[in-house]
Structures are given as structure tokens and as C-alpha cells.
Amino acid sequence: MAVDAEEPDRRDFLVLAAGAFVAVGGAMTLWPFIQQMNPDAGAQALASIEVELSPVKEGQAITVLWRGKPVFIRHRTPEEIKAAVAVPMDQLVDPLARNDALPEDTPATDPNRTKDGHENWLIMVGICTHLGCIPKGQTLGDSRGDFGGWFCPCHGSHYDTAGRIRKGPAPRNLEVPVYNFVSDTKIKIG
Amino acid sequence: MKLVQPRWRIAALALVGALPLLGGAAQAESGHGAAIERQDWTFGGFTGQYDQAQLQRGFQVFQQVCSACHSLKRVKFRNLVQPGGPQFPEESVKALAKAWPYQISGELDDQGNPIDRLPGLPDPIIGPYKNDVQARAAQNGALPPDLSLIVKARSAEQPSAWYNQWLLMLRDIAIGYQEGGADYLYALLTGYHEPPADMHMQDGMNYNVAFPGHQLAMPPPLSKDAFVDYQPESGVKGSLDQNARDVTAFLAWASDPTLDGRKRLGWQVMLYLLITTVLLFLVKKKIWSRVEH
Amino acid sequence: MSGLPHESTYEPTTAVGKWLDARLPIFRMLHAQAVDFPTPRNLNYWWTFGGILTFMLVAQIVTGVVLAMHYQPSAEAAFDSIEAIRRDVNFGWLLRNLHAVGASMFFLAAYVHIFRGLYYGSYKAPREVLWILGVLIFLVMMATAFMGYSLPWGQMSLWGVTVITNLFSSLDSIWKGLGTTIVEWLWGGFSVSGVTLNRFYALHYLLPFVLAAVVGLHLWALHVVGQNSPTGLDIKTSSDAVPFTPYATSKDAAGLFAFLLLFCWFAFFLPDYLGHADNYTPANPMVTPPHIVPEWYFLPFYAILRAIPSKLGGVIAMFSAIAVLLFVPWLDTSRVRSTKYRPVYRWFFWLFAFTCLALGWLGSKPAEAEYVFWARVFTFYYFAHFLIVMPLVGWFETPLKVPGSITEAVLAKNKGAKLAPAKS
User: Fold this and answer.
1) Which of C45, C119, C410 is nearest residue B292 as measured by Cβ atoms?
2) Is C246 among the domain residues?
3) Is residue C360, in this structure, part of any structural domain at all?
4) Considering CB atoms only, which of A14, A42, A46 is closest to B279?
């Protein structure tokens, strides 16, 4: 070779600086490629939906689709509400309300998971907090688990009549989405 | 490292210089439309950005004039709130959507019956017609196109002699000229005139100097006497020319809503590349200084 | 890879390195080919385009795979999904611009690379296979780019596909029904439709990997025969060469970043300059745009197609324009490789370069009398250059005196520079 074994000086400032620039540029280039996987502007701005509640009789439940997720809407009976209110807080697996409309550290009392004056309506995202299955308990023939609420057949999580996890592998109570009563019989989710 | 030696450069230049003599007649341009004059746009060139106030005025013109026939369906109401656009306050856009004269159709109610509903922030800015067939039926067979991409979908050719064209091309590349569509649209909006005496106009057609063939189905949307007045506090007086300019800018944004961010990031990238290229060139020089080459 | 004989200085230092080297000597091979590989010491910047092309191939595949995550290949949804990428996907506008402009930049670099090969005689023995692989790469690139341009499903996509696939219908004049059969087979219907779009998408995703494989062979062949040099001389002694790293690597890096400046200028400031406004109108099978023009990198071939008055003849001429490149190693009869030492051929080389530019310009013009006339003149020279000029000039031309070796050429040049310091 035309060059004797004189190795390039690796501590050379110029080589270091150029190498650093190329490396930083390469790393920054990754950013758009990572970001593009996130939900796009269209998905983030998905519509809120309005649901008419009047056809849902006491003791019945319906499931509606919101942002691709099933939302459970249950018209609870007075007994179910009473049972939920009566649960002492120290028996809860997850002591937090998981209500998107309330601060994160709100305790998981029954009133904190519903709206004042509309305690008979329980509205939750119907996705088990364990691994994302949809719990049973919406139709009359379904098993409702040991606590009369919902039961996830995938890995056996039991939820009570306020949608709180009581037994099984699920770590958190079912999520309550942001919603509002537009009128006495109509809610808007999102 | 000499690919082209000096006398070859001279020879090549002589060749290029001599060619106009060979083919001077080839410059006759095909006669579609008139030459489109280039306008001064705030968003033009490699540094230009949209003027928020102009986009807001342009939207007003779109709303009061264009939207009578045209949709803007690839633009959603939420886009009017975004930075880099007209950036209206969210509350006023919500109110705007609720008051939009046209409703979203095609959805079903609980009973499975098709319903119409008011648009909201995530919904497209729709026009008066539910589909193209309905639009044609209402417009004498002519289809008012959706305007979301109209500026990108049009261009303006610069007629010039063939031996000049590559120079103009290089100039456009150097200045980052991409506004042919906007120039054309402005020329079209301001291009309605009385037809020349010898021109036979088809029934229902309108003479327009910028339109290829000069016969345009769209009646003049703006005129000297019928234009949109802006709010006095905007400080800009409405006129045919001002309306055309503003609505063109608005439609340019509609077809390229990421322009502001694109050019901003572009300059950061160019700066980075410039520095790195110089550094790498110096490294190369240093390494190669150890060997004659 | 065996390759040009040269000693490898690779010695694994760590225990893991030694363990792996005994089982899969991949780092030994990489070291031999990318570090120790002897490179002529007189390579100029035109030689950096090989590295630039490798980069562009990888960049196109990476941006393409990412765009495929958002694109929907159906006649109903394709155009809308591209608009969603431009407007809603995070950095979608950037990825889409990089991919679309990247295609043009890929071709720009490929054309520079091809003309560099033609100028310095890089196709001559023993590099014939290397050259032929290059022509195959060019063909696959063209097919990939053509199919890629159909994907946005705008007006120019639809009508470009219609016009180009209809070329095959010219075969009807050889055997009645043959062309129509082929065209309907390509379309999967009786016109270009969503079915066509779907298969083009599948092939557009596949072909780049075929391309990568042929590029692998191209590089393999290169490392067997070694690089040509501006003098057209091979490496004869070790003083003719420098190790690939850091010499060629540092030069390639500088060349690549300079090229990226141009690339990013277009991607950020002129993203639509190299495209067509008509492709922002959704495909409409009822209306043909007034001027159907292919992408700029196909224009010379498009001009050749239109220059021939017969339908079949035009198609044959267009494909021959590429096929003739395959025979260049044998059409050139010159004793020396580099045009640097060929006083007569030099003129013809630049005339040929001008011809290609002229054909490109004519291809963008409507097929009207004046333009067609000049397209015929330049088409004639395009073929004459390969079929007449190359064999004849090589035969009668007396080349200039070629230096005895690369080292000799370098030293002579630098001595000349020292005598006349004003010339750099």
C-alpha cells in the first residue's frame, strides 16, 4: 500500500467532531421514524359520541363503541348500588377511583365512580385491566363473578357492581371515561 | 481530479451557444391560457411562511363565497385551530362547525335510518352536495371540484425559449419556487373579462384569460362590485384583488398545511448538513494529506 | 467473498471475538472488504456515487417500509391514505417527501454513476459482469420506480400506468391478440383498476429486495476485480493503493453528505418540484390529463419511444436503448479504458451526454412536429454512439500515452502542479 502503517490519530479533534456530528444526526433522524408509529392527528381527534339512555331499563346494560373501545353502560338497581356503597375501602384491591374526570388520587368510593344525581348509571371502558379482554356481565345470561358485577373469563378477574377489581389477576379498577349528562336521559362520552 | 479540462469546457459552451442557431424555430409554445404572472406570496420561496391574518381573511372569503358550491373535505374543522394555519380560537371553530350550513350525512340512527347531523371539530369541511352526481345535476353538468388540493393540483408554465428553460429551472430550484398553483389560482380568480369580439362563447360559459381554452363554467365568484368586506379591525380593505389573494393563500394552506414546520425543520437540517459536510471534508483532507493523490 | 488478493490485518483481540472468528469469520470478512480492501489512490469524487447509491437504496427501503404502515393499496383508499400521511401522520409529510424525492435522487446518483463508468471505461475487461449487473440494477430500479409512481393513484399515476402498460399491446402487430392478452394479464382486468394497483403495490414492495440482492452481487463482483481508476489503470503494486478505510471511507462520507444537502434541499423546500401537479387530482378513468409525462428520469426513453413513427418500432427502440448498454463491454474496441487518454472519443462522449440531456428535455415536450424531428435526430445519435462510434473510434483512434502505473500518474501530476503552482 502507498501508506506506511501510520494509523490515523483517533484522538484527533477533527475526526472526533465529525464523528460526533454524524452520530448525533443519525440518532436524530430516528425520531420521525419512531414518532410516525404514534396515533396520528386524525385518531387523536376522534369524535365524542352521544348515547340515548332511555331505552336501557333498570338492571339492563348496553355496550357502545367509543374510539374503538367497548364502553359498558349499566343501569344499576338500588340493591346493586347499596352493595357497592357498603364495601369497606380496605377490602379493595385498587383503592383509586380510576375516573378520568377526577384527580388521580381520588379514592375508589362508589360515588367517585359515578355522577352526582345519576348514581344509577355506571359508565366504564369495558376492557379488563389485566390483559385487555372484555369481561362478561353485560347480558343477562352472563356470569357476573363472585361480586355481582363483571367477570373476565380470560384469567378470572372478578369486578363488583361499581366495576372495581375484587379478586383475580387484574391490577386496577375498570376505567371510567370522561362523560357528561347532556340531558337526564342522554350522555356524551369523550 | 479534472473531469472536464478547460478547453473541453470551452468546447461544451460553444456547442451549447451554437445550438440556438440550429433550432431557433422550436420555441413556439403551445397556446393554452395566457402567461401566468408570478405573485409575491408570504409563503413563497425557501423562507416563506403563511401569514395567519391573511389565512383568516382567506377563510372568510372561502366561507362566504366558495363554500356555496365547493367542499374542502380534506381539511377538518380541527385543522382551522392548528398552529401554522388560520389558528382560530377553538371555541369559535366549534361554533362555526355547529352553524355550518351543510350537514354530515351517511350515518345511521338507533333504528338504522340514515340521518344528517351537524359537523364537529373532527369532521371535514363539507360542501352543499352529497355526491358528484348531485353536484353536476345542480350545476348544469359542471362539477365544482373539491378545493382541498386545488393549489397543489394546478401549475403555471413559464413560456420561454428552449435554450432559456434550463436556466429558469436552475433559478427556480435555487430560490425554492413552488407557487405555480397559487399564481394560477390568483390569475384565474382575477381573470374574468368580456370575451373578445371574435370569440364564440358556449352557452353558460364565462370568459377567463387564465383558464386553458378561456371558456370556464364557473361564473366569476368575485368581482369589482361584489367582494367580501373584512372586519374593520383587520385593517385590510376588501377588494376583488385582496379577496383573490387571501383566498388563494388560504387554499394554498389547505393543500399544504405542514409548510411552516417543513421549512423551519428544513433550515435546521440544512445547517446541520452544511457543518457536517465541512467537517467531513476537513477530515478527508487531513487523512489524504498523508498520501500523494 | 474471495476477492482481490490482499493481506488482511484483522486479528480478533477479545475472547468473544476469537470464539466467533473460529465459527463465523464475518468480522474478518468485513474487515478485509471494508477496511483493508485496496483502493486506487487516485480516485476522484465521481467514485463516491457508489456509496451514495448504497445509502439511497437503504434510505428508500427504510422510508418505504414506514410509509407502507400507513398506505392503503386500493383504488378507493389509496389517494386518501396518502393525504392522511401528508396531513395527519406524525412526520408523515417528511417521510413521504423523503421517499418521493428520494426516488429522483436515487436516479440522479445512478445516472452520474453510469456516466462515470462510461467515461472511465469501467465496463471493459475484466469488469464486464460488474457492468452487466449494473444494467440489471438499472432495469429493476426503473420497474420499481414506475410501480411506485402508480401508488398515490392520482391522475398521472393512473394514466402513466395505462400508457406504459399499453406499450405491450403493440405486440398485437406480431401475433394477433398476443399484446392484448399480455396487457389484460398485467392489468388483471380490461382496464387499469384497483386490481392493478394492488399487484403493483405487492411488486413495489418486493422489487427493492431483489434490487438489494443484485446490488450484493454487483459489490461482490467489484471486490473480485477491484476498482477502476481515473487513469483506467488497475492496481499493480501496493504503492498504487490505499486501504479502503480510512481513505475511501472518509471521502465517501464527505461526498455523501454533500449529496444529502441537495437531497434535503428538494425534500424540504421543493418536495413537489420533481412531481406533477396532476397527481394531486384523484385518478379518474373518464378523463385523461392534457399532457401525460413520465417522471423526469424516464424522459430520455420516453422521447425515444415517441420518436419512432411505428407503435411496435417505438417500443422496440425504447427497450433497445437500455439493452444496448449490456453490449457496451464488447462494442468498445479501444485499447485504453479511460476517456482521459482518448482525444477523439472525448468529443463523442460529451456529444452523447448532451444527447441524453436533449432527449430528456424533448421527452417533456408535447409530441409536436418540431420536437419529434429533434427527438429523431438525437435518437439516431443515441444508438449510433454505441453501435458505430464506439467500435469505429476505438479502432482508428491513437490514444495518448498512458502512464505506466497509478503511482506514476499521481507523481507526474503532482510534479506538474509543483512546477506551475497557479494551477490547482
Assistant:
1) C410
2) yes
3) yes
4) A14
Grid cell locating C97: 417527501
Q: Which of C38, C84, C91 sits opposite A1 (nearest CB)?
A: C38
DSSP C53-82: HHHHHHHHHHHHHHHHTT---STTTHHHHH
B124-125/C38-40 β-pairing: unpaired
C423 belongs to a structural domain: no
pLDDT along chain A (190 residues), means of 10: 51 88 96 93 77 90 90 93 91 92 91 91 94 91 90 93 94 93 89
Catalytic residues of A: 155
Residues of C in contact with A17 (CB under 8 A): none
Question: Is A26 at the interface with chain C, CB within 8 A?
Answer: no
Instruction: Give me the CATH number covering residue C181.
Output: 1.20.810.10
Residue B96 touches partner A, C-beta closer than 8 Å: no
The pLDDT assigned to A22 comes to 96
Nearest to A52, CA basis, from B105, B110, B117: B110
Which chains pack against B, by 3+ Cβ pairs within 8 A? A, C
When divided into structural domains, chain C yields a total of 1
ipTM, two decimals: 0.92
Q: Which residues of A touch B272 (CB under 8 A)?
A: 21, 25
Burial C130-161 (b: 16+ CB within 10 A, else e): bbbbbbbbbbbbbebbbbbbbbbbbbbbbbbb
Q: Please state the separation of Cα B246 from the chain's center in Å.
A: 12
Domain boundaries, chain B: 39-284
Domain B39-284 is in which class? mainly alpha
Residue C17 forms part of a structural domain: no
Distance of CA C311 to the CA centre of its chain: 27
| A:C CB pairs within 8 Å | 53
Question: What domain range includes position C341?
Answer: 31-417
**Does residue B223 have a pLDDT over 60?**
yes
Residues of C in contact with A41 (CB under 8 A): 87-90
| Chain A interface includes C32 (CB < 8 A) | no
